[in-house]
Amino acid sequence: MSTPPNALPDQWTIYLHPVANLTILTLLDSEGAQRQIGFHPLTPPGTADRTVSALEEIPEDALRASAQKLIDTFYQRTAQAQANADAFGAAVPDQQDLFARLRSTVPDGPIDIDLDIDDETLTIILKLTAAGPAAGALLSLIARWPGSTTTPPAGGVNQDLDDDGALTVLLDQARAERFLAWFRNQP
Q: What is the pTM of this model?
């Protein structure tokens, strides 16, 4: 028994834009934001730009198959991102408490803590940002974490100090889980 194909979400569209001998397919949500981009090769000359709100509006079988693949890829990527977010939540079930403690551990100013999704790997990114004296305290805290003391610096840990003295530390999902596990056990 085969599973039915994924449907185009309600009020979403696919913009078909031919360029040279290929068509760029862009999945657009109900607000018009790009959600997924794909390509279809060998577009016949004279094919015009168009936006469709249903796969049935695409008469060419091969192009319709590419549009279905675009939708399927979107659903697969969404499921993978959700699975990674769930895994992060399971690995760090006390994340809100840890974030509150982290904010109070870094004195002399606010520390911004954000979670995001890496568009390529679909994994969680932990972003820590602090300015002024708080940047120094954050840098000191990160330097105490054993996961940051390798030479060269560990992959998945990026630090950036901007011209205004704001420090941003990005930790990929695996490093974020390890950092928070280490931080959980700190006095």
A: 0.82
